[in-house]
Amino acid sequence: MSGIIPDNLHSQGVFMKKTHVMLITAAVVLLGSTAALNVTVANESGKDAKSVAWYVANIQEAKAQNQACHDSPSNQSSENCANALHALEITFKGGN
Fold first, then answer.
1. For the whole model, what pTM was predicted?
2. Which of 44, 46, 53, 56 is deepest in the core (most CB within 10 A)?
3. What does the alpha-carbon distance between residue 53 and residue 55 come to, in Å, rounded to a whole number?
4. Range 77-86 contact pairs with CB under 8 angstroms and sequence separation of 24 or more
């Protein structure tokens, strides 16, 4: 019997290989879709964010954005709020 694998053991091995391939494929698909969701959420949260330089050049917009951030605490962690505040700090305190 050297080198001969009985049919039932051989078929179990093939079944296990197919199961492993399916599990790995499912894991890759799950991780890929999770990564795509994270990218989508990140893009939506910052898709219209203005840069600090833009707010420095448009100081009235920076003031309006800062007021809107002050009025809406749930929005204070947004990139626009941080950039508007930083632009105001640069403008009124100096760039150093």
1. 0.50
2. 56
3. 5
4. 78/45, 78/46, 78/49, 79/45, 79/46, 79/49, 80/48, 80/49, 80/50, 83/49, 83/50, 83/51, 83/52, 83/54, 83/55, 84/50, 84/55, 86/52, 86/55
